[in-house]
Predict the structure of L-cystine uptake protein TcyP.
Amino acid sequence: MLLTILNIIIFVAFLIGLYIMARKHVSFPKRVFSALGIGIIFGIAVHLIYGVDSKVTKQTMDWFSIVGDGYISLLQMIVMPLIFISIVSAFTKIKVGDKFAKIGVYIFVFLIGTVAISAIIGIISALAFGLDASSIDLGGAESSRGSELASQAKDMTANTLPQQILQLLPSNPFLDFTGQRTTSTIAVVIFAAFIGFAFLRVMRKQPESGNLLKRGIDALYSLVMAIVTFVLRLTPYGILAIMTSTIATSDFAAIWTLGKFVIASYAALIVMYLIHLIIISGLGLNPVTFVKKTGEVLLFAFTSRSSAGSLPLNVQTQKNRLGVPDGIANFSASFGLSIGQNGCAGIYPAMLAVMVAPAAGVEVNLQFILAVIGVVIISSFGVAGVGGGATFASIIVLSTLNLPVALAGVLISVEPLIDMGRTALNVNDSMLAGTGTAKLTNNLDQDTYNQKEYAEIAN
């Protein structure tokens, strides 16, 4: 118990150090990087001194989880309200007319088009690295995780395809706000869209009532963003706890065994990120500028592993640094949370399908590859923005292709490590969708985009 108390004292000292950095106005990225580095070093120390399965490690991480899991819980708390109000408020900030439909189409095309490309990249990477789940031995944790995934798949595939499509609709939006269904995220998006279109109708036929509603929606948006800002300020503390726990409890032997999958995953993620930059360049914009101005958001997404938590920074970056109008920024960032996530819904399930296929005796031929791409596109609707999104997408893809879902459990040891890169790519794609849409509809403020000096977007 004394050793546990000692670890807690050291941890609290680190937290105080991060607080002092904040008081001295050290920039947000530097605080997050510091928390990340300290967490990795502290986690390695605990891992090497006490061991993964020691009582001291378990007790210590149990206390650390108050900060780490508490931070994740707060992110989960704001997900549904944030998605809902961001989409509704987007309708109040966008100009109605011919461009309205065009904007929606462009954002949709960017999100779905890139997820199709990411699926292809994932398949190529898996084939190039020769990934094969049948060659990996399942340990206790992996077997347990595999059984859990198989159980979830059974529940999710109990209905026919038409019935599954019906489940996307918000029959009870109040239930979906609790996130209890696997399709709750897309259901809230659909419900918010209905509210938004209803607002436009009221605005057109009853301008006085419409303006009153607009003021109310804008006020509610400001309130939710104030809550989000408070949660975001806790990020360095949460990152410190999460990284320490992740490293301290990681099975290094398993990570070494699955190292090829980790390398293949990041190779695919990097290639897809470069494709994003090629698209930016093809739009006539400077990709280097895009990288510099979006780096802070990607750092947050990478360390927090939360696309939803990154939403406020995502919107602010598009508006204040990239020159994207309010409405387009809100639409692309919000829809990007549940549609077309390149990392979680594109690369990951596609790689998993190719990896699992040999173990199921399925030949990876052109017909199989086309089937994977098609299923990945469909399954990319409704992927949650905080944790579990990649699992949800992989279950849908594997079960639809009649592949053994349980074999996905082999990746439990490296899941957090891969999820960091996936989340960053997801967020980058939504910013690409907003910037590209603004450019193609002539709404992009290129002076803002090209401006070399810019303020921080998080404090």
In short: Confidence is low (pLDDT under 50) at residues 138-143. The chain is about 75% helix and 0% strand.
